[in-house]
């Protein structure tokens, strides 16, 4: 998680958005989650694209995938 926290710090994006993108990509697989963290550290924007949360409608997408808040 420290690596993901570093990506959060440099992205300027909210932790919810980047964390959710990593969780979505992982689909319950810890190895995939670690891959998502590595991706975030390479380029957090790629993580958002891969997780489907790159656009302005990301809160709506998040609600659709994980359920409403």
What does this structure look like?
By secondary structure, the protein is mainly α. The chain has one domain. The chain is 74% helix and 0% strand. It contains five helices and no strands. α2 (15-26) crosses α3 and α3 packs across α4 (44-50). The N and C termini lie far apart (23 Å). The model has no long low-confidence stretch (mean pLDDT 86).
Radius of gyration: 11 Å
What oligomeric state best describes the polypeptide chains here? Answer: single chain
Order of helices and strands: HHHHH
**Arithmetic mean of pLDDT:** 86
Cα end-to-end separation = 23 Å
Give the domain tally: 1
Roughly how much helix do the residues carry, as a percent range? over 70%
Question: Total helix count?
Answer: 5
What is the molecular shape? globular
Residue fraction in strands: under 5%
**DSSP summary, beta strand count:** 0
Structural class: mainly alpha
Give the biggest sheet.
none
Low-confidence stretches: none
Write the layout of secondary structure elements.
Layout (H helix, E strand, L loop, with lengths): L1 H10 L3 H12 L3 H13 L1 H7 L7 H9 L3
Helix pairs in contact: 1-3, 2-3, 2-4, 3-4
């Amino acid at each position: 998680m420290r690596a993901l926290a570093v990506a959060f710090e440099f992205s300027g994006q909210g932790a919810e958005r980047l964390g959710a993108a990593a969780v979505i990509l992982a689909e319950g697989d810890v190895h995939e989650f670690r891959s998502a963290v590595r991706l975030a550290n390479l380029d957090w924007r790629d993580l958002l694209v891969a997780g489907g949360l790159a656009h302005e409608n990301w809160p709506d997408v998040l609600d659709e995938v994980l359920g409403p808040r």
